[in-house]
Amino acid sequence: MALTASPDAQAHLLDLQALDNKLQHLAQRERTLPEFAELKKLAAELEEHRRVLTERTGVLEDAKAELRRLESDVALVEQRMTRDSDRLKTATSTKDVQALEQELAALTRRRSDLEDIELDVMQRVEDAAAGLAEARAAFDGLVSRRAELEQRRDASLEQLANERKHTLANRATVANGLPADLLALYERQRERYGWGASLLRAGVSSASGVALGANDLARIRAAAPDEVLLCPDSNAILVRTDESGLEPTWRLDSPLP
Q1: Which of 210, 165, 185 is closest to 22 using CA atoms?
Q2: CA separation, residue 125 to residues 54, 67, 122 (Å)
Q3: What mean pLDDT is predicted for residues 72-93?
């Protein structure tokens, strides 16, 4: 037995379909928020900057460690020079004096060499510290950018969630006003084919965008207004209105009414 429903009830299916279309649109917007793509790109940039930050931190730490070693070597040389200077003051043997003077001369040259190297390393420390500060500033800038994007994303998601909640409430109101069997058919067709209801406007099904053939239109014209029909192309419930273009067509040789 063919399903029947009042034309008014069938027309309300279009309201339901419009709300379902909006829900699909909201879901699509949620999946394709530009912040998602930007955050993904930013995550890769952050990973690269984190690598640079780690690398430059290592360079600075190595330079500082070398500087500490040089400072320790200079301190040891100076301690030996102080010791030899004190011994030289009390030395009485010419041989001991000569040996101490030679060692002091060697230690002086050694300290000079270490201090030259120390200056170079100090410059490396300064350059490494500047490079690390630059990398940290760039990294911190990206972290701030990420926080801004996450805030925008969360605000957009909240707005979409509110729209979805409002749309679902409207959908429930429309659905509750429909006959159960008509609603069940709508839900089944929408689940299977993507569309539950389609407006026939000027002979074209809105779900498929295809103009119906003459035979289909003839069958639809012949159907009772309360008979529930399916679109031959989209399999959605075909809703007929005054826009459907189903007025009788008269042949030129037909008698006037």
Answers
A1: 165
A2: 16, 8, 5
A3: 89
Query: In this predicted structure, what is the pLDDT of residue 101?
Result: 84
Radius of gyration of the chain (CA): 43
Q: What is the pLDDT of residues 194-232, one digit of tens each?
A: 999 999 999 999 999 999 999 999 999 999 999 999 999
Q: What's the rounded Cα separation, in Å, for the pair 70 and 114?
A: 7
Confirm or reject CATH 3.40.30.10 for domain 33-174, answering yes or no. no
Q: How many CB atoms lie within 10 A of CB 16?
A: 21
> CA-to-CA distance for 74 and 46, rounded, in angstroms?
41
pLDDT at site 253: 38
Q: Residue ranges per domain, the chain? A: 7-21+179-244, 33-174
Question: 213 phi and psi, to 5 degrees?
Answer: -75, 170
- pLDDT, tens digit, 9 for 90 and up, residues 109-119: 999 999 999 99
- The arithmetic mean of pLDDT across residues 76-98, rounded, is 87
The beta strand positions in the chain, using DSSP E, are: 197-201, 204-205, 229-230, 237-240
Predicted confidence (pLDDT) per residue in 144-180, tens digit: 999 999 999 999 999 999 999 999 999 999 999 999 9
197-201, strands of its sheet edge to edge? 204-205, 197-201, 237-240, 229-230
CA-closest candidate to residue 179, choices 21, 18, 12: 12
Structure tokens at 120: 């170079």
